[in-house]
Input
Amino acid sequence: MRFSRLARGATAPIALITALTASGQAMAADELSGANTAWILTSTALVLFMTLPGLALFYGGLVRARNVLSVLMHCVAVACLASVAWLIIVYSLAFGDGGGMNAYIGGTGKAFLAGIGPDTLSGSIPETVFFMFQMTFAIITPALIVGAFPERMRFSGVLLFSLLWLILVYAPACHWVWGGGWLAEMGVMDFAGGIVVHTTAGVSALVLVMVLGPRRGFPREIRPPHSPGMTVTGACMLWVGWYGFNAGSALAADGAAGMAMVVTHISAAVASLVWAVIEWARFGKPSVIGIVTGTIAGLAAITPASGFVGPLGAVVIGLLAGIICQWFTGLIKQTLKIDDSLDVFAVHGVGGILGTLLAAVFAVESLGGQGLAEGVTMGGQFVTQVIGVVAVAVLSAVATWIIAKIVAVTVGLRVSEEEEIDGLDISAHGERGYDLT
Amino acid sequence: MRFSRLARGATAPIALITALTASGQAMAADELSGANTAWILTSTALVLFMTLPGLALFYGGLVRARNVLSVLMHCVAVACLASVAWLIIVYSLAFGDGGGMNAYIGGTGKAFLAGIGPDTLSGSIPETVFFMFQMTFAIITPALIVGAFPERMRFSGVLLFSLLWLILVYAPACHWVWGGGWLAEMGVMDFAGGIVVHTTAGVSALVLVMVLGPRRGFPREIRPPHSPGMTVTGACMLWVGWYGFNAGSALAADGAAGMAMVVTHISAAVASLVWAVIEWARFGKPSVIGIVTGTIAGLAAITPASGFVGPLGAVVIGLLAGIICQWFTGLIKQTLKIDDSLDVFAVHGVGGILGTLLAAVFAVESLGGQGLAEGVTMGGQFVTQVIGVVAVAVLSAVATWIIAKIVAVTVGLRVSEEEEIDGLDISAHGERGYDLT
Amino acid sequence: MRFSRLARGATAPIALITALTASGQAMAADELSGANTAWILTSTALVLFMTLPGLALFYGGLVRARNVLSVLMHCVAVACLASVAWLIIVYSLAFGDGGGMNAYIGGTGKAFLAGIGPDTLSGSIPETVFFMFQMTFAIITPALIVGAFPERMRFSGVLLFSLLWLILVYAPACHWVWGGGWLAEMGVMDFAGGIVVHTTAGVSALVLVMVLGPRRGFPREIRPPHSPGMTVTGACMLWVGWYGFNAGSALAADGAAGMAMVVTHISAAVASLVWAVIEWARFGKPSVIGIVTGTIAGLAAITPASGFVGPLGAVVIGLLAGIICQWFTGLIKQTLKIDDSLDVFAVHGVGGILGTLLAAVFAVESLGGQGLAEGVTMGGQFVTQVIGVVAVAVLSAVATWIIAKIVAVTVGLRVSEEEEIDGLDISAHGERGYDLT
Amino acid sequence: MKMIVAILQPHRLDTVREALAGVGVHGMTVSEVQGYGRQGGHKEIYRGAEYEVHFVPKVKIEAAVSDDDEDRAVEAIQNAAQTGRIGDGKIFVLDISRAVRIRTGESGEDAL
Amino acid sequence: MKMIVAILQPHRLDTVREALAGVGVHGMTVSEVQGYGRQGGHKEIYRGAEYEVHFVPKVKIEAAVSDDDEDRAVEAIQNAAQTGRIGDGKIFVLDISRAVRIRTGESGEDAL
Amino acid sequence: MKMIVAILQPHRLDTVREALAGVGVHGMTVSEVQGYGRQGGHKEIYRGAEYEVHFVPKVKIEAAVSDDDEDRAVEAIQNAAQTGRIGDGKIFVLDISRAVRIRTGESGEDAL
Ligand SMILES: Nc1ncnc2c1ncn2[C@@H]1O[C@H](COP(=O)(O)OP(=O)(O)O)[C@@H](O)[C@H]1O
Ligand SMILES: Nc1ncnc2c1ncn2[C@@H]1O[C@H](COP(=O)(O)OP(=O)(O)O)[C@@H](O)[C@H]1O
Ligand SMILES: Nc1ncnc2c1ncn2[C@@H]1O[C@H](COP(=O)(O)OP(=O)(O)O)[C@@H](O)[C@H]1O
Output
């Protein structure tokens, strides 16, 4: 995010320094922009809207009717938990000054927003606003993983997993890339979270389900989505909210935000159409679940590139996202028989990685991008991107595996077969999704 | 939209020139307003939200359960298609410089956003933002027509129709009124789309269904809306999003936007109550479908007038919209037996036309309006408004008839009787809307 | 709201004067801030979104399937009615100059927005924007009361009650606290409506149902919520919209808004978790209805304090809201057997009162707050808060009782037993909520 | 054994269930159904268009009982379900030639 | 008395209802059911995964009629329900040993 | 002919369908029902208020078979549906006096 400001001859380079030094003075030195603040306050609302209720509905419609409430519960509870953890320590670990360790992890100086008041600035906006905007990212990332384990994971396990994951995976990854850590130093480009959000969530989803195991009867007895309309509603909300996610990551109300919104929208539209057309060709019918899955794939893919590329890059990224992510859904579920139930890795992970790599390509001016940083070549940047993705993927995989094992031996990962048959709504939450009598 | 700025002694008259000349210099000459940019970025999100999921849900709840997904699919697919078409050529045709032909159609100079970067301005906001804001209008307009042909139109036909319609109807109409075309020159007043959006969509809906034909068993065997709650949800989202549609059309965060929001809201509220009261009187019961239909009628009617009239105008426009649009739903469906299934013409078309004509009346200061342009009389403006409506209505009718015929002989307009009986969800998309077991 | 600006060394103290004198000059003297205007325009959309469709869905999911549409109808109709009443007289009574009576009620000078044009300012934003923002508060407050009487109140009674209530309860309460009335003079702190919105709605809900009586078969035969997912969807929308409710009440895009957003979010998250944990302990299962009820309790509780307290205050307020509001739901419904059907008093009323009192405590700098007004002690402020709550509670109770009696003897309060059995959707509105065949 | 099939007003279901329990019938199967009969349906109006709804929501209960229990059960249902309003419903009795409890394989009256 | 149970294509319900009224049968009970038979179900595909749906939506009507009405009623249903396509459904007739109208307590054919 | 009515645990439906196909029964009609019996229902709690839910979701299948197929079909259902847990359900057999295939008018066992 920061990096983007440089890449395009930052309108507020101070933002970088701020993030790097995280020093009160540096901030004080800076000046409040009401316009930028207005847009980021709005973007914060948009990104929260992505998770609540956007993602919750997107996922909720895809499961069986008897598990719909449990999915909503997971999204809401994880969001609340992430918010509290963010305040207590995660924000500080991600954006605080890590001193000697700063390359790897932030410090505890900003724990509980210590020393940060209404008048503290971060770049041209109040740090409270920056804190909130970033919080919404920390909310949606573990919530994305909810799509991997619906219909079978124990609620207490969901909570414990998410909490540890935020501290052991999200905080360091976020710090490396956006908090002035080693990847930021190396100049990795991740405008709005292809690495920090989608790679972490996607890879962790895959590893977690390998430990957790598939749903009972997978794949033969699995039922189709119980409410595609709910899923479409959620997908549309995600699309709208994504404007805040990507255009908000410009941290300003300017042309950079405008162009980020353009490419975000175009990639989503192209990926949607491509996904539908491929289904049409393969199965004779384009489905609404398919077209909105393409939307999400296109949005995830453009995310890391949204501050760097132009319309051409958006079209190509959307096109590839529609093709490759769809191919991966088949690979993971049908071929490899891994029950990443709602395709978190295939759609978000693969999309985010794809966009992170292509950002290096389509950022170059000759391809309509905003240009790479002074003296950096496409090849050089590409290597940096690969390093960024691999490093964070490894961190995510290893840490997730360890956390999963910890959860398994403590509160437990999985519900009983009987609870799974009855559905989690009744067995875990004592509620039923629909009573239309 | 542009015109409005003059009408009320434009705070940024340059905007007009910009639109008229669409010259890089003119823009460069201008200066970025972060505040205006923040509000238009927000408005863009609000207007996208109107279509996805607002309009999709509003329409989806009104059809049979077995067709709900196909309606959502139409809205999503049309939105994606319109976005891509907008980038490739439609934006340029609408807002590009048409040179000698400029009175009738824009040029291809802005095709694929050629020459437009993050720093290019359009008035006081980045042109990328103007492009996105206008795109959301180009998305919702063909999506409105979806309400005319649900439960029976072939999906490929929907796509082809929408694409041709954007190029042959929307692009010229938008250029005439907002892109510096002949109607703009003539001084027609259409603040946010009574002509460009509602007249085009409403008239085209009517003509299209005349070619397409009614649903099987219409009117006797038609079933009531399968989910009025879904329709209410969508209507509420449309109401909220309409703030961006109308107040955003001020292209600034100022008192003009504020007053536009006031009159938009008041007209919606009045029309809703009027609709419900009339139902109460006629049938003994006010329905929730009725009250929200009134909301939409009131919103459509105030749209063209929202930048020109005051509270008084808003009340009268809302009042008349509630009465006249309701009367038209009966005329079209019961009396004329035309199956404009979800009343696109009666509600949107009639509402938009009504507001376009009344804008000339209630814009005058003595009636609480913001005043007409220098030296223009109410009568004179009214004639201009009539010309604008008639010209665009004729364009819409003729072009739609031709497009419908083209679609009929190429991909085909209508599904088979068996597919219609089974419902489009299964027959066209291979999905079912609800599986609550 | 005004008061808050002083409390934290107002960035725009003029705002207070404006409200007090409501004099054209005072306003003219002031200067427009595009940034603040952009944020308040956005906040207005967010707060409307809270009611439509947020609150409507939140409540709609909690009733029986056969009454879902009537609840949506109540929310939509009340919103429309409140909007018109606001324009005609309520805004003027709340924020107009009451002359000699100003301590108790505003005047009629601003009726129908008399003398207020696009260029009229209120503080640093156009008065039209202030009017709209405040209107959304006047919409949601009577809509909150809808939760007290679902499934049995006559529709005409709902309308008449709400109209009289806005004039006799909301207008004076709003004027006392925010319009420069006696409580404002006394320095009562209510940043975004703990007194004006939640105390009035909560207390009135309780009194109204005492006159109206419980639902047939309450409590034994009452059915569980028909669609918890709808309720969760609405709760999430309320959460998102609440950003505009509280952070928008800063009337500026600055650090005060940022901090208000922080504490709002934190209180919601803490209260949600606390509510769920208590359920888990008491019943063995945490429910999704429970966690989102906690969300709303936390949001209601922080509302009056959101401009004054820091993160610490937010955590404590959220914690207590989760415990106390949950305890009150049991007290009112199970113990006292009062059928405040959707817990308006227990959740909103108790939450709002709690936060109003605690605002005095956590506003002090030593507890991380923004500080009390010059020379005011915590004890002194606390007493002021108590006076504010009691005064408004008494007003609400007495006036509501009178209004309920008036409605009872005129249009009638309650539907027939047969209509209640058939459900209000069919009996009052002639519609059915779901037809999935 | 007899299969007692009764069509009821939905809101009488709980009362009927209790009444049956009262006479020793502790099992039944319930379905939501749409009824058509004297009671007639209702009209719904959307945007001025009238929709005739011919069917009324009812619940159907099916209770298998021993021959001796038949009379008591029928009577219990009738008393518990009656409101006196048109649409109260019907009771039909059919013969069962065989009954099996799946869990245990018990058959005949032991299966009930 | 006879209980006529018929499984129909959902969109034929109204025609059948009218046909029955035509032969003097003015009461019935309708349920939504899932049918399985020759017609076979369909396949749904979500994100490339195939889901076999074996069941087809049908409606079931149950109409109790007097012995004399049986033939006329069966014939009426058959004619009204027939489309000639696989999946048109079946008619089954079972014996009713007793019928009661809950509202009045009338029994036998008067209860119908 | 016989009408076999079976109440099952919903998740056993597919197994039962296959088992019936195994013994040559290729048609049936399925309904979602609510069961009441030994198994008992469950309690739901909303905001501290308890709601007794007496009924458990079950599926009901109705399969018309020829007299000779009865035993095989009943047995197949019993084996396929059994889990040994309370709530496995019941099988009831009733007589059919007449069956018609609507599409063709065939009647008797040919109609099945
Ligand atoms: N001949 C019939 N066969 C099957 N069910 C019937 C028959 N007649 C009525 N019913 C059922 O009984 C219900 C009530 O019957 P109706 O004639 O409306 O009132 P009542 O039971 O008071 O005579 C109907 O809604 C229908 O479900
Ligand atoms: N043996 C049976 N018992 C009960 N219902 C049956 C039986 N066979 C078919 N049905 C019902 O009849 C419907 C139509 O039967 P099917 O064999 O598909 O076509 P057709 O009626 O033309 O022979 C099925 O969907 C099912 O509901
Ligand atoms: N007497 C009965 N008549 C009709 N259906 C019954 C009867 N008893 C039980 N059932 C059905 O069978 C289901 C299972 O019965 P239940 O007594 O709970 O367990 P089990 O079948 O193991 O004895 C019930 O849910 C109900 O649907």
